[in-house]
Amino acid sequence: MKFLQTTNPDFDQQLAAVMAQRGSDTQSVAGPVRDILQDVRKRGDEALCAYTNRFDHMDITPVQLRVSRAEMEKAASLVAPATMDALRLAAARITAFHEAQLPEDIDYTDAAGLRLGMRWIPLDAVGLYVPGGKAAYPTSVLMNALPARVAGVKRLAMCVPTPGGQLNPLVMAAALLCGVDEVYRVGGAQAVGAMAYGTESMKPVDRIVGPGNAYVAEAKRQVFGHVGIDSVAGPSEVVVVADANNDPRLVAIDLLAQAEHDEQAQAVLITNDVDFAHQVEKAVERELETLTRRAIAEKSWRDHGVIVVVRNWDEAAEVANEFAPEHLEVMLDEPRQFAQAIRHAGAIFMGRFCPEAVGDYVGGPNHVLPTSRTARFSSGLAVHDFLKRTTSIETDGEGLKAVGPAGVTLAREEGLDAHGLSMAARLKALAEQGQKPKA
Amino acid sequence: MKFLQTTNPDFDQQLAAVMAQRGSDTQSVAGPVRDILQDVRKRGDEALCAYTNRFDHMDITPVQLRVSRAEMEKAASLVAPATMDALRLAAARITAFHEAQLPEDIDYTDAAGLRLGMRWIPLDAVGLYVPGGKAAYPTSVLMNALPARVAGVKRLAMCVPTPGGQLNPLVMAAALLCGVDEVYRVGGAQAVGAMAYGTESMKPVDRIVGPGNAYVAEAKRQVFGHVGIDSVAGPSEVVVVADANNDPRLVAIDLLAQAEHDEQAQAVLITNDVDFAHQVEKAVERELETLTRRAIAEKSWRDHGVIVVVRNWDEAAEVANEFAPEHLEVMLDEPRQFAQAIRHAGAIFMGRFCPEAVGDYVGGPNHVLPTSRTARFSSGLAVHDFLKRTTSIETDGEGLKAVGPAGVTLAREEGLDAHGLSMAARLKALAEQGQKPKA
Fold first, then answer.
1. Which of A233, A341, A386, B204 is deepest in the core (most CB within 10 A)?
2. Which residues of B are catalytic, by number?
């Protein structure tokens, strides 16, 4: 853990050094991932089975790649009713928030007489990657599948590795809750390749979303362009901005909630009170003792944890913007006022009763958020990721008369004869024959 | 050129073969691009000058990388007044359409008492890549810079190669018109690297937009994740859907307006009338004779041109969706009705008086559009590309009481202790002490 203070003359360099450590460098696995993708593209199901059997210690043939509806239902039946209720509450809240995101089409005729439009159209098919093993989170399924459903995507295909052949009951229950019944027991780069290029048993999709390890992230990067992807997810962060009027234990727990995700995760406290900072530091040590995932959380906090003591909240906002964190908790009396100064954050959690975990599960907004400072230029998952825009221009002769001559001028300046001619020939036809450009 | 008919029993395979040829494979330059990017990252300005001097036949030192305002103004002063008027008309129309795109924030409190929000925030800094040489198009500058301006981006940096040292007057005039005065005479992968990582004389940006050759496209792909990019642009297409009630010459010119861009460009006619198809084919041959860029247009038409004769407009829509073209012209009596069946197209041009070139210059919607069938999952450039979304959740004790227990259940099921505890500890504090979670 690094303890920084803005009063230190070297603060800027110290902060820069912390930032330089972040980032999602998947270059080291680029070669193996390229090989896997090529192999899946070439050998299809055969390659999928080979990798799955090797990496997930299984023994399947192509007909077993897809998880049957009966298998899904059997696994899902193991989920306790209270958990199903919680999943349903989460699903309803996520659906409601993403419905509020649905954007409006544009359609207007301007003064020149051109009718201009923009229509949002759902993607045909989306692939959801769901990590297996220790990170098999049912709420990931909800957060990726429900926005696609709300957007109107017809086909959702899901890939989830099942190490040792075990289906995760919660993941299957979540998939069924979202109406996803096209599920494949495949993970890693091979799953990404199958979704991008298709195999005998898996039709290709148009966009791949969902978190994954470095292989999955690099595979998504490599198939990008052939299909769309959501983002290349890196290690995740929280920045907690808190004054001394908070329980240090609650702040410590919130920091550890980030740290327990992953050894590479980063938990940051920004406070204006050095004594409070030390109290939180001690509380972290105490709370660490109680956690099942202590080893992970402890390593994350030791290696990547940061406490920054600032002189005032303006400085705090500046430092928070520098981190451009995935998650920002604002535990102040006027959190909304503080949030006005935030330019870069995936999601903001305001108030002393709003830990980030609320957003992970039951808040409503998406928990798939830009990590590793990418909030500078990217956004959390939303219905927009499952829609695309088609613009349109409609004009008759009058509209063309209004804007065409300027178009012809520009086309000629750019040396594009046929561009100019496509407008000029119509303008000429209009001048000679009135409205109809038919020869 | 390929002449296909849906009545042919092999039509599906023939169409699939045409599609398989498309795509933006930049793999072949991946190695050289990686070297250039690493070199720029390591040696900064020195590398930039070396590549610029080598590729653009120049002899500059780092102080000359940036084009001065005086140089820009001097170059821009060479543009004819009528051309400046045309550029201003285009700029005004592009600005107006992109202002209509500005999305609304979300802010509401739901029945459970959680205040949920989503705020659109402009990016801090954007880099515009503008191709040099034969493809130095001033309207590219407008189409990339104006949406960023409308979105509220404060810093716009532009890179444009200047082969032989010549500044393009139109490009400089367009940049000044958009208020862009941070311009560097650098192109290729080295420009992308400089914008992504920064050098001594160029601060890094958060997102890079703009078209370019295979090196630029591959460089954008490789820096993606470190910064945002718009898309990996490939060869461009038009699909013209036309009935026999059109002048074959106008259709031919529209096809050639696409073909003259690039030898890899693809122009496609879909019609329901085989005689009309042959008339267009002949008209293409005649019009080719007249074009300055005949060699390019001819090669594009020979290698990539397609005529598809369909039985009816439903088939036409299906085939058009299969192409998922960058540009779709609908030259029918009821173009809007036909367009309803289109799921995949970057932009649609409706009516017999609306050639695609209107959209290239003076329509208003963006001309930076998804190419090579990527309209299946991506969109043309818009203000959305220069904004990002930050979601927010605000809740007091009552809101947490409403949703927290379900959150605790899910966190425990996912084995994330601290996540559960961050909510459970607050719920406990609320139960014991009323509203304040302070210990």
1. A386
2. 326-327
Closest CA of chain A from B330, distance in Å: 9
Rounded distance, CA B177 to CA B94, Å? Answer: 12
Residue keyed to tokens 């045309």: B86
Position A135, amino acid = A
* B2-24+234-363 to CATH, choices 3.30.1330.10, 3.40.50.1980, 3.30.1490.20, 3.40.50.1450: 3.40.50.1980
**Model pLDDT for residues A336-361, shown as the tens digit of each residue:** 999 999 999 999 999 999 999 999 99
Helices (H), B64-161: 69-76, 81-101, 138-151
The CATH code of domain B395-433 reads 1.20.5.1300
Q: Which of A233-237, A376-380, B374-378 has the lowest mean pLDDT?
A: A233-237
- HSE of B214 in the Cβ direction (CA atoms, 13 Å)? 12
Cβ neighbours of A411 in B, within 8 Å: 357, 360-361
Task: Classify B182 as helix, strand or coil.
Answer: strand
Contact (Cβ atoms closer than 8 angstroms) between residue A262 and residue A350:
no
Q: Does residue A327 have an active-site annotation?
A: yes
Two structure tokens written together for B39: 């070199």
CB contact under 8 A, B361 and A406: yes
B379, A388: Cβ pair inside 8 Å? yes
Q: What is the tens place of the pLDDT at every residue in B349-395?
A: 999 999 999 999 999 999 999 998 999 999 999 999 999 999 999 99
- Nearest by CB to A390, from B112, B250, B348: name it: B348
Q: From 3.40.1190.20, 3.40.50.1980, 1.20.140.10, 3.10.180.10, which CATH number describes the B27-103+119-231 domain?
A: 3.40.50.1980
Chain A neighbors of B376, CB-CB under 8 A: 123-124, 206
